[in-house]
Design brief:
By secondary structure, this protein is mostly helical. It folds into 2 domains: 62 residues, no CATH class; 130 residues, no CATH class. It has 6 helices and 2 strands, in the order ααβαααβα. The longest helix has 26 residues.
């Protein structure tokens, strides 16, 4: 699956990097530090990677799987069923698709909870990170639903939204903990790089 994403991902990142450099060098009027510029570039690259991973039509996702609806609005029902199936069949839960899905969704949004407070003083609270992550993840699921309507099979799952938000919150809490340990105080206005 990763090799299917590599070529379009690198092409898209190259195009974005070109426009980013053009915009920042030619059109930008406000002076910023190299740290801030690098952080913004990392953030843009991260968002592009998330969109490629979640929206790009992979060869394995172009056809519907028989017997699978692919749309789940009941939190954790399918996840619990899959865990029950794996434990009943004697398979290892750590190598199951369900475990990979849970861990992958959390890790995919963990950087969002770290990068947003570093980029904006206005996004340095738990609830703001929660809301941004919720709306971003929900938007991805809506776009996946639309892609299903044009024949590209992508699953739409409320569990993904919950796990993505959880990942962002965990990222935010990690940043807050690191900030508190290194500076001896809580995150407030001075979080910005």
């Amino acid at each position: 699956m990763i090799h299917q994403l590599a070529k379009p991902g690198l092409m898209l990142l190259a195009i974005i990097l070109f426009f980013w450099i053009f915009f920042r060098v030619v059109l930008a009027t406000k002076q910023t530090s190299y740290k801030t510029e690098l952080l913004f570039l990392v953030f843009v690259a991260y968002i592009v990677c998330v969109l490629i991973i979640t929206l790009y039509p992979l060869a394995i996702t172009r056809e519907k799987i028989p017997g699978v609806k692919g749309i789940n609005f009941k939190p954790f029902v399918n996840t619990i069923k899959e865990f029950s199936y794996h434990s009943a069949s004697g398979r290892s839960l750590l190598t199951s698709h369900t475990f990979e899905n849970i861990l992958g969704n959390i890790l995919l949004f963990l950087p969002l909870g770290i990068l947003l407070p570093l980029l904006s003083v206005n996004l340095n609270s738990f609830w703001k990170i929660f809301l941004v992550a919720f709306f971003f993840s929900s938007s991805i699921e809506v776009l996946q639903w639309f892609s299903r309507q044009v024949g590209i099979y992508r699953s739409v799952d409320i569990d993904d939204v919950i796990l993505n938000v959880m990942g962002s919150v965990v990222g935010f809490l990690i940043l807050k903990l690191i900030y508190k340990k290194t500076n001896g105080r809580s995150m407030s206005r001075e979080v910005q790089v």
